Amino acid sequence: MELTKLFSPSKIGSIKIKNRIVRSATWVARADEVGYVTEDLINFYRILAEGGIGLIISGYIGVHERGAGNYRMTRLYNESYKVGQKKLVSTIHDTSDTKIAAQIAHTGSNIIRDGYELIGPSAIKVPGSIKLVRELSIKEIQEIVSSFITTGTFAYECGYDMIQLHGAHGYLLSDFLSPFTNKRNDEYGGSMEKRFRIIEEIYHGLRDELGKDYPIMIKLNTHDNLNGGLSFEEGKEFAKKLVSLGLDAIEPSSGRTNPRLTNNKTFPAAIIKSSDEENYFTCVARELKPLMANCALIFMGGIRNPITADQFLKEEIADFISMSRPFLYEPDLANRWESGNLDPAYCTSCNACFGTVNQGGIYCPIKKKHQDKISSNGIS
Ligand SMILES: Cc1cc2nc3c(=O)[nH]c(=O)nc-3n(C[C@H](O)[C@H](O)[C@H](O)COP(=O)(O)O)c2cc1C
Ligand code: SF4
User: 1 in a domain, yes or no?
Assistant: First the structure.
């Protein structure tokens, strides 16, 4: 079986990508305690790049000291962070023809670490938390808009080929889009236009700084599955607005990062028990693609089979496919598929990797178990 599309080149904006395989943003908890790039993180990315992926989207990078509330996530909001980030990007460019995008994010009310204040558009209790979110003032919102623009500009200066705004999973930008979390009645809340305003301002600021040819993408919650939250109808309208603004790619997603809140099916990294449950954002991609004009659609969510993935591309449901967990198990998955071994990804989509965060960086314990078994069999 020949994969005619999966390994054909394409473009996001002006940037050529050697194949249609994208590593979806994945926080791997390998920065140091205050978000500086480590040698371990650089090595992790080098191995990924050597594995044949067309475009790697980095794990989320904090745009602000108060917006980096997850354990050992990277940050890029002052000059001191640029040294390590530059080294990471140049390692990838020097060792492969893989492109790399910086995902830039503000964690807002979706905080895992102690010592961080929950902040967001409105003073509500976010689902799953007993703490009240502190409502941001207009001045603070404007400061956050500037910090996204600064971090995006720093990413460009560090050599990243493109950037992706994190507008999903209950982090700050998606909290502005959702009427569940955004109850404001000033210029940043209320109507869809006003809930969208923060993203629009960030986009215009970035375009002014980076020029028309530098690709700007977004990972977008298209619905959040909360009563009174973002509906898919509104999600589609937001996608249309982003296309007409000039975004170069949209990677649709949904839900919040706490799977208990929105039931497992709408958790962006859903547990998959059988192949029928794979490709769980197909309906979303199918409905969005006709609205996309020249904006690329990056389709993610439980994609595990190269033949099906190729078919999605042939049917023009998507321009690229992206995966996260499969690359934790097999960083060289793209090379394996390209070499003709078309077995689906070995990742079982069990989410045990989330439990490894305090063990020196996120890894796949299922693979480790498998490897340990092989080596103990070898010894005996
Ligand atoms: C360990 C882990 C970390 C993740 N970190 C991020 C992140 O930093 N930014 C993001 O947008 N999504 C993140 N995600 C979600 C993935 O990018 C992806 O959308 C989701 O896992 C579904 O794709 P998959 O089925 O191929 O894993 C993460 C997922 C996992 C498993
Ligand atoms: S633990 Fe391993 S097999 Fe399970 S979802 Fe994570 S990467 Fe996949």
Answer: no
- Ligand 1: nearest atom to the Cα of 322: 26
Does this model's pTM top 0.85? My answer is yes
The confidence score (pLDDT) of residue 264 equals 56
As for how many domains the chain has, the answer is 1
pLDDT at 319: 98
**DSSP secondary structure string, 132-196?**
BPEEPPHHHHHHHHHHHHHHHHHHHHTT-SEEEEEE-TTSHHHHHH-TTT----STTSSSHHHHH
Q: What is the pLDDT of residues 196-220, one digit of tens each?
A: 999 999 999 999 999 999 999 999 9
What CATH number did the domain enclosing 15 receive? Answer: 3.20.20.70
Residue 223 within a domain: yes
Position 368 in a domain: no
| Selection from 299, 333, 290 nearest residue 319 by Cα | 299
Does 9 have pLDDT greater than 70? yes
Report the separation in Å between the CA atom of 344 and the middle of ligand 1, taken as the mean of its atom positions: 19
Question: If you take atom 8 of ligand 2, which residue's CA is the nearest one?
Answer: 347
Residue-level length of the chain: 380
